[in-house]
Amino acid sequence: MREYDAIFIGAGQAGPFLAARMAAMGRKVVLIERKYLGGTCVNAGCMPTKALVACAKTAQMARRASEFGVTIPGEPTMDMSAVAARARKVTLDARSGLASWFDSLETMDVVYGQAQFAGAKDVYVNGTRYTAPQIFINVGARPHIPDVQGLTDVPYLTSTSMIELAELPRHLVVLGGSYIGLEFAQMYRRFGAAVTVVERGPHLAPREDRDISEAIADILKRDGVNVLLSQKLLSVAMDGSDVVVRSDQGEVRGSHVLVALGRQPNTDDLGLDLAGVETDRHGFIQVDERLQTNVEGIWALGDCNGRGAFTHTSYNDFEIAAANLLDGGDRKLSDRILGYGLYIDPPLGRVGMTERQAKEAGHRVKVSTRPMSRVGRAVEKGEILGLMKLVADADTDRVLGAAFLGVGGDEAIYGVLEAMNLGATTEKLRWAVPIHPTVGELVPTLINDLKVTISAM
Ligand SMILES: Cc1cc2nc3c(=O)[nH]c(=O)nc-3n(C[C@H](O)[C@H](O)[C@H](O)COP(=O)(O)OP(=O)(O)OC[C@H]3O[C@@H](n4cnc5c(N)ncnc54)[C@H](O)[C@@H]3O)c2cc1C
């Protein structure tokens, strides 16, 4: 049996940083990882996908070159092995950076293998028992494969296997019209594949307000992505070299199918019952405001607790745990104002509540929108698709949320994110002097145009 001050299960975006903080304080910690350091973000998520999005953007700009007075003869051709190699390099560089950092920490051990609880203070890995008074679970999530007739009998792709794909599909059928599916859909269309998105709901990116969802669909359709909405998936089957996806609305045939229908936590093979740790019916570990599970001495951080699904929410879980356990702080999950990006091109930057959420939460809402075609910076760059939207409380003047779908939207949203974290009113924001020409310079204009809305979104 090996004794430690703390055990960390999973080398994702929360646990390793807390482990390193503890190790730097001289505590003896062990980090257990069954696959790769860095978890999903580094190896199969944000980093490789955003590297691929950059390749797709370059192909698209080559196609549009003549609009900018640049002559590139003919349709660009893709070297998909070079594309995959570029994404792989981004991953490997980040992974090896983490490995060297952890190597430098004297009281931190890294063990590779599947961890399973043997009790509330004990974990088994490769037949060895590890024990500690504190255990931090950071096991993340994986693609959810729903129970659809025939699906597991066809060679389906997931976001993980897509990253390594070094060929161009003739026709990629993407099941699921949410964030992950949409990024791959546009990217592969720009690489030159025919792409069809099959979405169950009446809108893409169903969590967003309808005007934003419709603008997202418009962006994808202009790229030539075929979008099928309100499709109840019935079956998937092979017919020769075609994969045939059948829904209640008809069928679509492709050469490859990507399943992007949500993610499920990696908690089913952890032996949580032996530690007495409770999950909800989807397998997400139940935590309190300070990320502690129902078992004293066990915390759950990152995607596996179902309270966030992003790298920055996972990292923020580390910050909350570190502040409370190491720095005498009092930080809570509910202090977090959620922001995120959808990295189609142009991207969506989001923060806080949508208009619909604000109304459902009982706010009297003021809304302002502006098409990107009326944003100088976007016009100059020749990127006029999308819109900016700001939502505020009509009674308190507080900013409640924003969606910037357009060129630079993922960066410009920061002005609103910071303002919300500082509790700024629209009156304060209106008097900030923005830099010209930027996308963010339109925030004071959006504030001046705020109007009370009552209709549902
Ligand atoms: C395609 C894609 C694109 C994404 N893009 C973005 C983006 O642009 N921005 C963003 O913020 N987020 C993005 N995400 C989400 C982001 O990657 C995750 O939210 C984030 O990685 C979650 O981190 P985590 O710390 O919770 O767990 P993970 O990073 O998933 O790490 C968990 C680790 O635990 C290990 N593990 C699991 N079970 C065990 C066990 N029993 N024993 C030992 N080890 C175990 C796993 O191997 C893994 O390494 C994307 C995700 C995907 C799939």
From TrEMBL:
Its cofactor is FAD. Residues 4-314 form the FAD/NAD(P)-binding domain. Binds 1 FAD per subunit. Keywords: Disulfide bond, FAD, Flavoprotein, NAD, NADP, Nucleotide-binding, Oxidoreductase, Redox-active center. The keyword RNA-binding does not apply. Disulfide bonds join C41-C46. NAD(+) binds at G176, G177, S178, Y179, I180, G181, L182, E183, E199, G262. GO terms for molecular function: flavin adenine dinucleotide binding; NAD(P)H dehydrogenase (quinone) activity; oxidoreductase activity, acting on a sulfur group of donors, NAD(P) as acceptor. FAD binds at K50, D303. It comes from the Bacteria. The active site is at H436. The keyword Transmembrane helix does not apply. Residues 342-445 form the Pyridine nucleotide-disulphide oxidoreductase dimerisation domain. Belongs to the class-I pyridine nucleotide-disulfide oxidoreductase family. This is FAD-containing oxidoreductase.
